[in-house]
Specification:
Layout: H1 3-17, E1 25-26, E2 39-51, E3 55-67, H2 71-85, E4 88-91, E5 98-113, E6 118-129, H3 144-157, E7 162-165, E8 176-188, E9 193-205, H4 209-226, E10 228-232, E11 237-246, E12 258-267
Parallel strand pairs: 1-2, 7-8
Antiparallel strand pairs: 2-3, 3-6, 4-5, 5-6, 8-9, 9-12, 10-11, 11-12
Helix pairs in contact: 1-2
């Protein structure tokens, strides 16, 4: 996803949602002292690879400019911009590519530009650009444990929640949960059995913070209460739930708020060997 695609998507969102600036959303070189106020300037920041499940991250700065009167106007304009962009899934109107803006705070103090007779304040956003990964939320996961966890979550949270797996797809819907495998461990139990453990991370994204927190609490509590999750009811195969935890402060898109380990004991496969044909012994048996 290119910078121009992101810039145009952000520009169109601000024009649509922030009526005070109209269509006055510019790149840095396009505004000057004569530009009608209020308006906003978009500045590109640095890029970084984020993760396999959420694409890459780009820093973007939004600078709203208002007339040099008082700070109340810049406060109101900043709030409108944050409301329009923060935690929103934004679609570029021409390419259809999608990304999410996360509000990261302000850039220093308010700035008074005497030459331009303006007040401005820098707002910092990180843009998470989702990558095309197929319909991973709707296809059956290749890992049967992941499929079992996704199905269990759908039952617990209800049909209004979409359950994804492996990676966030383009155009994901809210409210949603993404489950991914974060680690696999094999433990010795006995000569005849081993214990397989898989650690899962759950990313919970609600339409509101209240809905999101409630889903985190419900999912974690139900995991703790369940003790076992069905893997294959017909053959009476279940997964043991180990130490589910929740962190409400974690980033739902990038880090995930829920961690849980599932385990199951499996019989060790015994290699076939030829049968003993003869036995020889020397010496006296006492």
């Amino acid at each position: 996803m290119g910078w121009q695609t992101m810039r145009e998507g952000i520009r169109q969102r601000l024009i649509a949602e922030v009526s005070a600036i109209g269509d006055r959303v510019f790149e840095p070189h396009a505004a000057d002292a004569k530009t009608a106020k209020p308006y906003a300037v978009i500045v590109q920041g640095s890029d970084s690879e984020d993760s396999d499940w959420s694409g890459f991250r780009r820093l973007v700065e939004i600078w709203p400019y208002v007339s040099w009167t008082n700070f109340t106007e810049v406060d109101a304009l900043c709030k409108s911009i944050i409301d329009a962009l923060a935690d929103q899934l934004i679609t570029d109107p021409e390419t259809g590519e999608m990304f999410t803006c996360r509000y990261e705070g302000t850039l220093g103090d308010d700035t008074v530009d005497e030459d331009w007779q303006a007040i401005t304040r820098g707002l910092r956003f990180s843009v998470l650009a989702l990558q095309p990964t197929g319909n991973v939320g709707y296809e059956q996961p290749a890992d049967p444990w992941l499929a079992a966890l996704a199905e269990w979550s759908h039952v617990i949270l209800g049909s209004q929640w979409t359950i994804f797996h492996t990676a966030w797809p383009l155009g994901y819907a809210r409210p949603a949960v993404l489950w991914r495998i974060a680690g696999v461990e094999l433990r010795e139990v006995s000569a005849a059995a081993v214990e397989l453990r898989k650690r899962f991370v759950g990313h919970v994204i609600g339409t509101t913070q209240t809905e999101q927190n409630a889903a985190i609490v419900l999912t974690t509590w139900k995991l703790k209460a369940a003790i076992k999750l069905p893997l294959d009811v017909a053959t009476r195969r279940y997964l043991t739930v180990i130490d589910p935890k929740a962190d409400h402060q974690a980033d739902g898109l990038r880090t995930g708020q829920i961690t849980v380990t599932l385990s199951r004991k499996e019989a060790r496969s015994m290699d076939a060997a030829p049968m003993m044909a003869e036995f020889y012994q020397q010496g006296n048996l006492l």
